[in-house]
Amino acid sequence: MKHVKSLLAGAAVSVALASSALAAGVELNASSTGLALQGYDPVAYFTEGEATPGDWRITASYQDATYRFSSEEHKAAFEADPESFLPEYGGYCAFGAAMGFKFDGDPEQWRIVDGELYLNISADIQERWLQDVPGYIEQADSNWPTIVDVEPAALQQ
């Protein structure tokens, strides 16, 4: 655990400012313009099985964030049931949430587990998270209610 906290502390310096500056809301990781998932199509993870950039011309708003889609069909699916496609922990890093932090989730570092989309901050962190997915999800689920409304930078102090 001490090693994990050291690893995250090193990442915290570079990520803390980006996380807090780019977050439109503390429970949802969206850019200052309100763009969620850095413009990636949330439906494509489930239907295409890959991270797919969305088209700036095909968008939908949900919970004060803008989502982009690679097709009108994906947009329609999202609008019919947005909660089915939203990333866990508001799109913040799943491993970070397990450690009690909020780091930007990288839309290229993702997994679907039991029908839920999880993002991680980097390939290295994703590999670490994959070593105990159920355990880290359990930790993150336990931590999330206490960190959901806290600014990312405040969790670094």
Could you explain how this protein is built, in words?
With 157 residues, the chain is α+β, with helices and mostly antiparallel strands. It has one domain. The chain is 40% helix and 17% strand. It has helices at residues 2-22, 44-47, 72-80, 94-99, 123-130, 133-147, and strands spanning 55-62, 65-69, 106-113, 116-120. Strands 1-2 form a two-stranded antiparallel sheet. The chain has a two-stranded antiparallel sheet with strand order 3-4. 39% of the residues are buried.
How many domains make up the coordinates?
Answer: 1
Mean pLDDT value: 85
The radius of gyration computed from the alpha-carbon positions, rounded to a whole number of angstroms, is: 15 Å
Q: Largest beta sheet: what is the strand line-up?
A: 1-2
Helix content: 40-55%
What string, H for helix and E for strand, traces the elements in order?
HHEEHHEEHH
How large is the share of residues in beta strands?
15-25%
Query: Pairing-aware structural class of the strands and helices?
Result: alpha+beta
Molecular shape:
globular
Largest sheet: 2 strands, antiparallel
State the assembly state of the protein chains.
Answer: single chain
Q: Which segments are poorly predicted (pLDDT under 50) over 5 or more consecutive residues?
A: 2-25
Number of alpha- plus pi-helical segments: 6
- Terminal-residue CA separation: 18 Å
Number of strands: 4
